[in-house]
């Protein structure tokens, strides 16, 4: 292949290497020079242009890319028409991407001009998803290099293994203290995991965390035609002789592997009973967040056997994102119990909906609203109370005279609620495990409700956010574990942290409440009048 500058007349048949702009002339990169282009170049006063010409024995970039893409595509893979030296490959059906790493490496080793990139091996993909691309770097390559890359592909370097398992049985073992809602949530999360594969829970059983009871349940599900059985233990598997592996062995099954170098997901167990895979799920499988369980589950649903060598090879890249409900997080925290919860009262707002007066200073039963809220926080089990002020800070602080509270002024209060949340969280003592965030305009919040939120906070059970709830509606205040302080510090504008509650739903403990105290905030004169009448 020849590359270099040439006069317009000598460039005929060549392909432009760069986009050229001169006056009104625009000649794009990749344009083949012909008589019309020569005339336009001469008219624009261009004396020289850089072009590339294929020589005998060369093939164009598109021809090379197309040939290699066709060679690497196996079952379930479609190849898009090559353009500008690139040929993209797509999944023709849903399934798991199977990649032959050795063949990919051989193709990329042929020559620097030839590149082949794929998604991660064993990634679940949907129909139409782009899974790989062949890109030829120059405008052409020697045909012998193209042929070497095609030979390296060996008749397919990647394929889609379609999902074949559709009927999944689930067994949940029970111990005192395991709430029914945990089981319900686990089933919901599992159903959502299975749905992309076209699989569903065909039956579920709940039995005591006992070897005999579990063995009977697994055997029953197999008899009902389950193609895969997942066991969620009330207690994590600690040993190959523990309840779950013992139950599998007890019905004539085999334990193929216990443990995997993926975190979260370490305590996964893979077994087999009568040719049907049986999974002992790690605790993180109750969370919808990706973990090691997903890596194995999706392969099994696609009919792919997960070997011991494949499991032990998952260590590189196996450190995944933190599961917030983990009892012992990697991040070093000072404490994490329900014994030291600070209270933060947000009292910096401008009361714009009140039409002038500061609602926090409005009285109910002879006391300013903000003082009512603060006194209830002080009467609760909260370890200390911080009040965030801003608008009319001196008047608000005067209304709280004599109370044992810490004041923090928010200079950015006009930017909205988020600025006050951040000011309050920043002021929480370092030895606090969490903070209950109260709104200064909610006078019906009681010390008892705050105490109930604190009692519901149980990190060892995954309860890291406590929220009052009535008829499915979530109210205030909300208690947050220190684990979420960094995320709370990213809030912006006049929007609260509701989206974080939804994001970390697996960490939420709902505290049932009666009445409307957890939902009544005094925002308008009408609301104040109603509260005064009540």
From TrEMBL:
Domain of life: Bacteria
Residues in MoaB/Mog domain copies: 169-302
Listed SMART domains: MoCF_biosynth (SM00852)
Keyword Lipid biosynthesis attached: no
Pfam families associated with the record: NTP_transf_3
GO molecular function terms listed in the Swiss-Prot or TrEMBL record: nucleotidyltransferase activity
The keyword Transferase appears for this protein: no
InterPro entries (alphabetical): Bifunc_Mopterin-bd, MoaB/Mog-like_dom_sf, MoaB/Mog_dom, MobA-like_NTP_Trfase, Nucleotide-diphossugar_trans
Keywords: Magnesium
PANTHER family the record matches: MOLYBDENUM COFACTOR CYTIDYLYLTRANSFERASE (PTHR43777:SF1)
Protein name: Molybdopterin-binding/glycosyltransferase family 2 protein
Organism the protein comes from: Bradyrhizobium sediminis
């Amino acid at each position: 292949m020849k590359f270099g500058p040439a006069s317009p007349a000598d460039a005929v048949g060549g392909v432009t290497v760069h986009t050229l702009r001169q006056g009104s002339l625009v000649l794009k990169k990749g344009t083949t020079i012909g008589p019309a282009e020569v005339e336009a170049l001469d008219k624009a006063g261009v004396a020289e242009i850089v072009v590339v010409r294929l020589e005998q024995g060369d093939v164009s970039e598109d021809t090379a890319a197309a040939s290699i893409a066709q060679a690497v595509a196996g079952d379930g893979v479609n190849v898009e028409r090559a353009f500008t030296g690139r040929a993209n490959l797509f999944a023709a059906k849903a399934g798991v991407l199977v990649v032959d790493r050795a063949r990919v490496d051989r193709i990329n080793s042929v020559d620097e001009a030839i590149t082949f990139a794929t998604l991660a091996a064993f990634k679940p993909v949907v129909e139409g998803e782009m899974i790989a691309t062949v890109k030829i770097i120059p405008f052409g390559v020697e045909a012998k290099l193209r042929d070497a890359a095609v030979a390296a592909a060996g008749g397919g370097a990647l394929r889609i293994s379609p999902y074949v398992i559709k009927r999944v049985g689930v067994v949940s073992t029970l111990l005192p203290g395991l709430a029914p809602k945990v089981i319900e949530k686990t089933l919901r999360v599992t159903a959502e995991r299975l749905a992309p594969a076209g699989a569903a829970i065909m039956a579920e059983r709940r039995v005591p965390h006992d070897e005999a009871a579990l063995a009977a349940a697994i055997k029953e599900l197999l008899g009902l035609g389950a193609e895969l059985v997942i066991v969620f233990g009330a207690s994590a598997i600690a040993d190959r002789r523990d309840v779950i592996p013992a139950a599998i062995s007890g019905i004539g099954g085999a334990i193929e592997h216990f443990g995997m170098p993926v975190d979260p997901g370490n305590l996964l167990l893979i077994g087999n009973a009568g040719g049907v895979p049986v999974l002992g799920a790690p605790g993180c499988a109750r969370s919808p967040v990706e973990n090691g369980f997903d890596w194995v589950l999706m392969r099994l649903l696609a009919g792919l056997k997960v070997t011991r060598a494949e499991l032990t090879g998952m260590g590189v890249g196996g450190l995944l994102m933190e599961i917030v409900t983990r009892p012992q997080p990697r991040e070093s925290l000072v404490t994490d119990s329900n014994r030291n919860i600070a209270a933060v009262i947000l009292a910096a707002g401008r009361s714009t909906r009140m039409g002038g007066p500061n609602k926090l200073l409005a009285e109910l039963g002879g006391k300013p609203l903000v003082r009512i809220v603060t006194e209830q926080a002080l009467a609760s089990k909260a370890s200390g109370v911080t009040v965030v002020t801003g608008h009319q800070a001196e008047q608000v602080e005067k209304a709280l005279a004599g109370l044992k509270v810490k004041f923090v002024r928010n200079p950015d209060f006009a930017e909205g609620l988020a600025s006050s949340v951040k000011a309050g969280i920043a002021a929480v003592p370092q030895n606090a495990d969490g903070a209950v965030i109260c709104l200064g305009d909610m006078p019906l919040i009681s010390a008892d409700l705050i105490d109930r939120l604190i009692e519901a906070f149980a990190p060892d059970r995954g309860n890291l956010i406590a929220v009052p709830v009535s008829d499915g509606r979530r109210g205030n205040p909300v208690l947050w574990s220190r684990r979420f302080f960094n995320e709370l510090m990213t809030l912006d504008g006049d929007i609260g942290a509701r989206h974080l509650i939804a994001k970390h739903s697996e960490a939420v403990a709902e505290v049932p409440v009666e009445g409307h105290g957890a939902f009544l905030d005094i925002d308008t004169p009408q609301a104040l009048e109603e509260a005064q009448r009540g």
